[in-house]
Amino acid sequence: MDPTLKNRVIAALKAEIPTLPRGLRVGAKYVIDHPSDFGLDPIRETARKAGVSPYTLVRLAERLGFEGYDDLRAPFRQALVSAAVVVEKPAWVERLREEGEPGRIQAEAALNEMAIVQRTLEGVKAGQIDRVVSMLIAAPNVYLTAARASYALAYYLHYVGRMALPSLQLIPRHMNSPIDDLDTADVDDVLIAITFTPYSRETIEACRFASRKGMKLVMISDSEIVSPEFAADETLVASMLSTHHFGCYAGAMALIETLIAQLVAQGGEASRLRIASYEKLRRESQAYWAGQKKR
């Protein structure tokens, strides 16, 4: 079987998704977001997870030129042979498992976090972080937005990143809507949007608004296809698989740390001087607690 077929199918789905009927669009997004599960699960299980009917998946296969569903799934099954993420299980994880139910839960969470960090960083395309950073440095204004749980990631990226990138602005300001702060932006500016399933309405509206204005858009998300209504210039994809009810943000944080490392490196001497200035200011203003020295 052609080893490039899986990637070509995903590329075709991404190109077709804006024009697909709603049911096929939902099925296509599931395949793009969960290629390993799609290759592994039978059609009824895939339909259940995607929230569509088995017939919809058959129609999707036919839309892409395959004779049937199994022909569409075949390249994804083949890719599973070489796509498995290998995470070494340290001895301390095995010791945790021996400490009863709390230890087992902790061990499973730890293994999951290590796995999704590896999966996320392996998925970043060669040169993509470099392209994103070059785009940010060249922009007169870089806006950063997120909502709810994702806001914590945006706050951290802004707090640290602005030392290397002074044009970085966290929006919304003053409890406004993000689009209020984007109203004066122009085509040379960039919006960074952080959102994960279920996507926040405010963040999606900000992305649509920025796209209509012709701004460049960088997404940090769990899918390359967040909405068929706009297309990001760059999307940094983080795995959000979790052992509990909510998504695990370890992979997303790893992406952000990688982005910050590149920002600082490409910022050069100017970046180093700004960071040194911030540190001096904090020392002088006694921003950090220090215990009294023993006499």
Outline the low-pLDDT stretches: none
Radius of gyration: 22 Å
Assembly state: single chain
Largest sheet: 5 strands, parallel
Number of helices: 13
Structural class: alpha/beta
Structure, described:
The protein is of the alpha/beta class and 295 residues long. It contains 13 helices and five strands. Helix 9 crosses helix 13.
List the helices and strands and how they pair.
Elements: H1 5-16, H2 22-33, H3 35-40, H4 43-50, H5 54-63, H6 69-83, H7 91-97, H8 100-123, H9 128-138, E1 142-146, H10 149-164, E2 168-171, H11 178-182, E3 190-194, H12 201-213, E4 216-221, E5 234-237, H13 250-284
Parallel strand pairs: 1-2, 1-3, 3-4, 4-5
Helix pairs in contact: 2-5, 7-8, 8-13, 9-13, 10-13
Outline:
The protein is of the alpha/beta class and 295 residues long. 59% of the residues lie in helices and 8% in strands. The protein is built from 13 helices and 5 strands.
